[in-house]
Amino acid sequence: MCPDAVRVMIERHSLGVRHLTEPAPDDAALALMAEAALHAPDHAELTPFRFSVVRGAARERLATLFGQIADAAGRDPESVAIERERALRAPVTVAVIARIDLGHPLVPQHEQWIAVGGAITNYLNAAHGLGYAGKMLSGRKVRHPAVVEAFCKPGETLVGWIVLGTPTRPTGSRSPKALVPDIATDW
Amino acid sequence: MCPDAVRVMIERHSLGVRHLTEPAPDDAALALMAEAALHAPDHAELTPFRFSVVRGAARERLATLFGQIADAAGRDPESVAIERERALRAPVTVAVIARIDLGHPLVPQHEQWIAVGGAITNYLNAAHGLGYAGKMLSGRKVRHPAVVEAFCKPGETLVGWIVLGTPTRPTGSRSPKALVPDIATDW
Q1: pTM for this one?
Q2: Domains present along chain A, CATH in parentheses
């Protein structure tokens, strides 16, 4: 029994790059987070996901990519700078890449996405449990050909990025989320 | 910081109805599990899921439904009995119902399934953290018209059922899962 584990899940919330600082999760923390992700429910254990970790000097490479895309889209210099900043400011950015088998004989596509969601959830839960914080980001950028080429092998889908670091303000301090009224009813 | 929360996620594993007994999670436990589910990452907070709890006398109704379907499919009496037993033996069975907005302007379908997966994962993590155990079940039965009609409103999808109870053998005692080699690499 570990009621504290329930508290960690309930208190975890998204924290954007403006509220993240060094240190980033180290090798040991990232390995534990990946292990937690691997233990989320996953029908037939297909592991339809992988993580690509952007840290250290690789952040400059990601900033260049984000900047070029914003620039090519005709965004103003300020927006381009914000895009670059997003990559540089996060102590670590982890790309979440799905590998969905569309023709799997046993596990329909939606169950594979469910497994991806479980992995992301446990990855973030574990980060929070280890004292870190972060947020999942997606948006149109994940479908940009240059971004897809930079992260995915053939057949893979870029889901988005998890930014991670040490929170600059206490987490778990938000007002509690109201329970959605019909979230659980008796059959 | 709560490293024990990470341990709960890593040690959690599926446990089928043969290894589950009374007591089932009570109202307070089910509410905490639903709350944990609501705090999983969910882009734009669409809450694209709900839970329908089958317990007490409702289990007999579910057993009848499962039995009828197996019977209509021409299954032998033993298989029909096993199907009935599945519904009766679990101290509580929770149907997971997805409500996916296929035309959402911001959140693509796969991100909504990811949110469903996060909810299922936190629901099961919380059950485990509270001393219970269980398993997610799906299969062809979830698409049977009589089953869908019994659980879903128009536009909803039955994902499957989570069986829950108190474990009859210690959980977290399985040999550790090998880390998938390419699960996390540097970009």
Answers
A1: 0.95
A2: 15-55+90-167 (3.40.109.10)
